[in-house]
Design a protein that fits this description.
Blueprint: H1 2-28, E1 31-35, H2 41-51, E2 57-63, H3 65-75, H4 80-87, E3 97-102, H5 108-113, H6 118-121, E4 124-127, H7 129-175, H8 177-185, H9 190-230, H10 236-242, H11 244-270
Antiparallel strand pairs: 1-3, 1-4, 2-3
Helix pairs in contact: 1-7, 1-9, 1-11, 7-9, 7-11, 9-11
């Protein structure tokens, strides 16, 4: 049971890690909608105001032609040929754009569909969704698969823990069958006979939770800095410390629940009282 509680806690921490990585990646992913030269700023800002009303949209940033030119120069300041060519132009060749971030990576396609309206098709030059589509799709798939696998593993571990505790209580019942008969002969109630086995299951759960906590603490202390080295911004040990009480109470609740359920199943199956 300790292994199960440890594994459940590990899956929870892995979920925190995956969510942190996903959030970092999602912050770097967006789509840009470029508007044809000559499109007025008011038109673009009106579209921005419509976009922010959509539930799928997290943020919309307007980039004017002047800002686009400034960003372009900063990005390519070391390219003398490009800077010289840009200086020879009579006008700013860069277009105004809207940089859009979605709430979920799977929602970008529906946001792109927003621009299929006839009024917008006339002023939109291009949308870079296709350039980012592969990254967006892969990220959404990774998140989905990770959560599905985690749920399946969690279910398997819970079943295994119940079976282990179930067999332990079953053996205890078998070895105590004579004492139980004597208790019944002297007038003990059914719950008086069943109670010790339920308490035993709960105690197993509490001990398992304590062992899991004792085991996982030094592991996180050792491995968390190494994980942070490869994945900046993810400090599992800090998360564990700041949520220690909540995590322990969760482990305790899981242990007590698994122990109680296992005991009740074993009692109903093998204790004839």
């Amino acid at each position: 049971m300790s292994l199960t509680i440890f594994s459940i806690t590990s899956l929870l921490l892995i979920n925190v890690l995956v969510n942190s990585l996903t959030t970092n990646l999602e912050d770097k992913i967006d789509i840009s909608v470029y508007f044809k030269l000559g499109t007025s700023e008011n038109q673009i800002l009106d579209i921005r105001n419509e976009l922010v009303k959509l539930d799928q949209v997290r943020s919309v940033e307007y980039v004017s032609t002047k800002e686009a030119l400034k960003l372009f120069k900063e990005k390519h300041k070391d390219n003398e040929v490009l800077m010289q060519s840009l200086g020879e132009l009579d006008s700013n060749p860069l277009e105004s754009s809207l940089s859009i971030k979605a709430q979920e990576t799977s929602q970008y396609e529906s946001i792109v569909g927003f621009f299929n309206q006839e009024d917008y098709l006339e002023i939109v030059d291009k949308i870079n969704y296709l350039e980012n589509k592969i990254v967006i799709t892969r990220l959404a798939s990774i998140v989905k698969v990770t959560r599905q696998v985690g749920s399946i593993v969690l279910l398997i571990l819970i079943i295994m823990a119940i079976l282990v505790a179930f067999n332990t209580i079953r053996l205890t019942i078998y070895s105590s069958r004579k004492e139980i008969k004597v208790m019944k002969l002297v007038g003990a109630s059914n719950w008086f006979a069943r109670g010790p086995f339920i308490v035993e299951g709960i105690i197993y759960g509490i001990i398992a939770a304590l062992l899991a906590l004792i085991f996982i603490y030094p592991l996180l202390w050792y491995f968390s800095p190494k994980i942070t080295t490869y994945l900046p911004g993810t400090d599992l040990f800090y998360f564990f410390q700041t949520n220690l009480i909540s995590l322990f109470l969760l482990q305790l609740a899981i242990g007590v629940a698994l122990g109680s359920i296992s005991s009740i199943i074993a009692i109903r199956r093998y204790l004839d009282v």
